[in-house]
Amino acid sequence: MSKEFDLNRRQPYIDEQSFTNTIAHFRADDAIYSANLVEWRDKPYERTVALGFMAGQLWNEFQLRYTAGVALQNLAVMLPAVVQAYEREAKSGDELPEDQYFPVFTLGEPIDEYVDYLGILCAAILLHKEELVPRICSLLEGTDYDGADLIVEELLKFYLPDRPIGDEWLWDKPYGMLVEVIDCDSPVARAKAMKKYVTKWYSAMKGQAHFWGKHEKIEPDFSPYSGYWAMCSAAFTYLYDIDDTGYRDEVVYPKDLVDYARSMPRRPVRLDGGVELLRVAGGQTCPRAGNWFSPAKEDSARHFNEGEHMPSFDASEYGQTIWQWSPSV
Fold first, then answer.
1. Helical H segments across 107-254, by residue range
2. What sign does the dihedral 175-135-148-153 (CA atoms) show?
3. What is the bridge-based pairing of β-strands 276-277 and 279-281?
4. Could you tell me if 56 and 85 lie in one domain?
5. How far is CA 76 from the centre of its chain?
6. Does any domain span residue 273?
7. Are residues 70 and 40 in the same domain?
8. What is the pLDDT of residues 28-48, one digit of tens each?
9. Continuous H helices in 72-111
10. pLDDT (tens digit per residue) in 194-216
């Protein structure tokens, strides 16, 4: 293993030989399945299954590249291809007969697909690929999981309008601890609760997630392990501007993604019709000068200058105070 690889890798379990051979394995699989897609043009179910496998492989490759230390700028370029791969699966699945249909992401058991969906959504947020958020959200549209999970909705509400206000979540272990973070009413309490979540995230996956313990099965020619990352901890730390001093050196916390997200201003999401949506949690500084309002308080509309502190409101039925930029206020 080269010294450069050793210095750049973000978790200590992967080695350069396994990484290189696993990437080659992914490329070979992709070539095989791409050829099969041509043969299966008249077999929609087989095509959909193959497209799902290819999308999952590409997401695994993205995670493995992150774990191995690939530059974040390069991963930001790769992420749209991951989302597009899942969109291809979704389009193919929509053409299946009802008795053969299956959703792109099954957020119920096992927990792995739930973790994957949150991981992709959080990656888009942290890499400032905000334009991908509506597309990632669309992957759940029309399924039983659309609007069904509080964690997903807490992330989406920063970027999309008219999302439901949920009070249920699909996986209490370990995500009930993340709900505690969301419900905290002070920065100090929120940082403490997040530290608890981060430190317990991986151990809570034992017996639930297929990815648990995969680092023990790494071989020179292939790694079934692509990384253990509590991606939600990073996304909420960024969105809620939590002080991560107490947990930023935990091995599952992707601290450089948080630093990357914080290094540049939030960008609005462009919705259908050209409308731009930009939302910021109360307690943070204003990312763009203009008119803002918060549904957490009546008659809250006012002008903020860039860099100005945006207040939070107590006793809000919405929980976390969210400010929304509006050129029309």
1. 112-126, 133-138, 150-156, 175-183, 187-204, 231-239
2. positive
3. unpaired
4. yes
5. 13
6. no
7. yes
8. 999 999 998 988 888 999 999
9. 72-94
10. 999 999 999 999 999 999 999 99
